[in-house]
Amino acid sequence: MIPSVMPTYNRAPIAFTKGEGAWLTAEDGTRYLDLGAGIAVNSLGHANPALVQALTDQAKELWHVSNLYDIPNQQALADALVEHTFADTVFFTNSGTEACELAVKMARKHFHDKGEPDRTDIITFAGAFHGRSSAGIAAAASPKLTEGFGPLLPGFVNLPWGDHEALEAAVGDTVAAILVEPVQGEGGIVPLPDQCLKGLRALCDDHGILLILDEVQCGMGRTGRLFAHEWAGIAPDIMMVAKGIGGGFPIGALLATEAAASGMTAGTHGSTYGGNPLACAVGLAVMNIVSEPAFLEEVNRKAGLLRQRLEGLVAAHPDVFSHVRGSGLMLGIVCKAANADVINACYGAHVLVVPAAGNTLRIMPSLTISDDEISQAIERLDQAAGEVTANAAN
Ligand SMILES: *Cc1c(COP(=O)(O)O)cnc(C)c1O
User: Fold this and answer.
1) Could you give the CA distance from residue 253 to residue 149 in angstroms, rounded to a whole number?
2) Ligand 1 centre and the CA of 133: distance in Å?
3) Within this chain, do residues 208 and 191 fall inside the same structural domain, yes or no?
4) Last-in-domain residue among 241, 267, 290
5) Which of 42, 230, 296, 389 makes a 20 to 30 Å CA pair with 329?
6) How far is the CA of 39 from the centre of ligand 1 (A)?
7) How many distinct structural domains can be found in the chain?
8) Domain's final residue, options 260, 290, 320
9) Which residues form the domain of 368?
10) Are residues 369 and 226 in the same domain?
11) 136 C-alpha to ligand 1 centroid (Å)
12) ∠318-320-322 over CA atoms, to 5°?
């Protein structure tokens, strides 16, 4: 019999009832150190007092009004995002995949309105993840996501990662945009080198096409800059944001330049919940904290510490781990042992990590994790790795 909750997830048999900072408490009272943060969502830790305050203050006043009316904290959050990024304008969604939908629509509309209606193709890359909507799975083009789901949304050209010749050859008259994650998340924490991101920007400029960055996972301070592309010193035309911006409350956003968004006039797009007062109250509280230079400096300091400690951990367990990669507090450990076995051993050591493609473990704690918690994380990961080795010997 099918479970009442549709069985589309592989779940661990643990239910958490309370969270505080970097910690989660299970039903049986066991405390787990959370290095997954809801897959880079709980950017400021669980039950962050500033976010609890923002949400409860708003909840007492007004939960929802339609986008038929002005929403002051939606305006304030848009202003904050515009102030701190390349963007001139913002559309709010409830998720990353909805931001992807709009990115695709916007790029096509931009060229339609410019009198180039044949420019509808979007170039994407192997290993990408852009969400589970029809556009998102067509963009990522991985059989794991698309198989069985019928005709794919046309207009995506998926290229191998890092094949410059294939890319040059693919940028023809029907291409509207290049869509890429500055650091692939689901794909296994694979950073795009700054030089390549600069190259993509130059290629888009040369051909008059749009650069769309998916910063759903790597944005909002995760890599030590407010957005990951800032490391390369370039700016996109369109950018998808979600996950960390809500700190656990569902909200996403699509940021764009005035030129890229020129076709998005009244009636061209909409969302019932997008930019809802509760979501924007929390998003604004997150932005106010994460956009502070001192906060980001601290993220970079802790990222250096965590990376150094992870390199030591990997060196101590050469049979279990291969190497560390990533950026800021978005780190991946490529495993030699099966990553699923390491993750199971981590449950035993009461530390939570998240799998990714390429036999990788994702280490993405809340950006507020303390030095002491980083030390505890390494101790627990060390214990788990020892367990994996012991099991292999038996
Ligand atoms: C999670 C993710 C998405 C999809 O976001 P949802 O909120 O799950 O719809 C899209 N792109 C990237 C890079 C992601 O990590």
Assistant:
1) 27
2) 10
3) yes
4) 290
5) 389
6) 10
7) 2
8) 290
9) 16-34+293-393
10) no
11) 9
12) 60
Average pLDDT, the chain: 97
- Regarding whether 58 and 203 lie in a shared domain, the answer is yes
Which of 43, 97, 213, 251 is the pocket-test mutation for ligand 1 (most atoms within 8 Å of CB)? 97
Residues above pLDDT 90, as percent of the chain: 99
Length of the chain: 394
Report CA(312)–ligand 1 centroid distance (Å): 31
Strands in 181-244 per DSSP E:
183-184, 190-191, 210-214, 238-241
Could you tell me the CATH number of the domain that includes residue 322?
Answer: 3.90.1150.10
Give the integer Cα–Cα distance in Å for 215 and 202: 19
Show the ligand 1 pocket: residues with CB < 6 angstroms.
95-97, 100, 129-131, 181, 185-186, 214, 216-217, 242-243, 252
- Report the C-alpha gap between 143 and 184 in whole angstroms: 17
Ligand 1 atom 11 nearest Cα: 130
Q: What angle do CA 219, 242, 260 make, to 5 degrees?
A: 80
pLDDT tens, position by position, 105-162 = 999 999 999 999 999 999 999 999 999 999 999 999 999 999 999 999 999 999 999 8
